[in-house]
Amino acid sequence: MKFSVTSVVAAILAVVNGLPSTPLPELDALNVIGGVTWTGEVLPGKNVTFRGTIQEVQAQILAEDPDYFSAHENETSIEHETHLQKRWELKQPPDCSYGHFMRRIYAIQFINQLKGYGGGEATCGAPPRRGPGLGGCSRVACNWGSQMWLCNDNDYHLDLPCTEVASALFELSNVCYTVQQGGDTETQGQLFTTDNWNVIIDYYGDCHSKATVG
């Protein structure tokens, strides 16, 4: 690996001054509002729309009908499926150093929820970018600090089928992971697509805070 004189000097100055070489980006989650919009028939003849993270959406569904998901509990796991919607192309290799590790078993659970099991139509949205290098991000899944994000680098609001977002997150979890002593698998990272949106797997704080990751 080659280093320029400028980059070496900058790195030395950063250390001397006690400053990080690059600022840690902050993810602004639509004022901490989840990016999933779900529309479906929870009760016969009653079409409803719920918004939030996928976990918040499911809680709203269960408040309407506590037995709603029982009819779907035997659906096939994502690990054995080949028909996840993939309309995106990889822009560059995923950044596996981004974020903080979460357990991959939870990542797969989130992805299963995002891909639409339980019926209905789920759309994942993110606001326009806030400026150069500052994507507009929304939190699409979160539980006890384990989080998944959709970030938009376009100048317009982005809406995607959550199956497409789930496909990118699944790819990220398959590439960026580590196996801990004892066999537990953890995952983190960021995956960019050629359509100027990206997904993030992270563990930070709780499900109601802004996340600063590096």
UniProtKB/TrEMBL annotation:
Organism (species): Metarhizium guizhouense (strain ARSEF 977)
Keywords noted in UniProt: Signal
Name by which UniProt lists this protein: Secreted protein
Source organism, top-level taxon: Eukaryota
Signal peptide: 1-18
PANTHER family: ECP2 EFFECTOR PROTEIN DOMAIN-CONTAINING PROTEIN-RELATED
